[in-house]
Write a structure and sequence with these properties.
globular; alpha/beta; binds S-adenosylmethionine; about 220 residues
């Protein structure tokens, strides 16, 4: 199964996936198992081209400290953890024992389990319990959309200068610009996007990758 963004046609999606580095067997099998065990939730998983982008970006950043908010069955975590420099560590935040049990299985298979630390409690609690020091080179926010502003406000102070924050689903299948779309997630993302562009601590670019990927570099 390939998750396709509404922003890209089916044919173009296939083209860009086949012209990006292919998922290895671990990622491919994780996508298949997620789709078969959790068919109603599988669409939450990032697509293969976004995963390849995140691995490359983590490598380019020379990241050793990484943070993920919203882990699900672990696909994006594998993509980030694989890009870490030697000795790097990824802290993952989620609330689902069931979904993250699949993640743990695939982290083992990928040989990454020893560099991933999973915190199973509401992400805001995990963040607030962390020291407010500049610890992370890269962060990925991909949990409940109504929590994004709160996560952002906890994450930015914990990023190192030059660190990169990625935020998923910031175009909401294009509904951010449709006035008739007033559901809670769309409204939350509009408010989040406005919050981020007004934040002078970061430089921001919103990319049409997947369902919209915001990329922000801390000054
Ligand atoms: C969109 S999915 C993450 C997808 C994942 N990044 C991937 O690519 O496979 C969102 C995840 O956020 C988690 N989540 C929802 N509310 C949360 C909260 N308050 N704290 C931590 N995690 C939460 C859900 O359990 C779910 O696994």
């Amino acid at each position: 199964m390939t998750r396709r963004s509404e922003l890209v046609s089916e044919g173009l999606q296939e083209y860009l996936v086949t012209h990006s580095v292919a998922p290895d067997p671990v990622l491919a099998e994780l996508a298949v198992e997620t789709a078969s065990r959790f068919p109603d939730a599988a669409g939450m998983q990032i697509g293969p081209e976004q995963g390849a982008f995140m691995t490359m970006l983590t490598q380019l950043a020379g990241a050793t400290g990484a943070l993920e908010i919203g882990t699900f069955t672990g696909y994006s975590a594998i993509c980030v953890a694989r890009g870490l420099a030697d000795g790097g560590r990824l802290t993952c935040c989620d609330v689902s024992e069931e979904w993250t049990s699949v993640a743990r299985k695939y982290w083992q298979r990928a040989g990454l389990a020893d560099r991933i630390d999973l915190k199973l409690r509401p992400a805001l609690e995990t963040l607030q319990a962390m020291p407010a020091t500049e610890s992370f080179d890269i962060a990925f926010i991909d949990a409940d959309k109504t929590g994004y502003v709160s996560y952002w406000d906890e994450v930015v102070p914990r990023m190192r200068p030059g660190g990169v924050i990625l935020v998923d689903n910031t175009l909401q299948d294009g509904r951010v610009i449709e006035p008739a779309s007033q559901d809670a997630n769309v409204q939350a993302i509009r408010a989040f996007n406005d919050h981020v562009i007004a934040d002078e601590r970061v430089v921001v670019v919103l990319l049409p990758i997947g369902d919209g990927l915001t990329m922000a570099r801390k000054k």
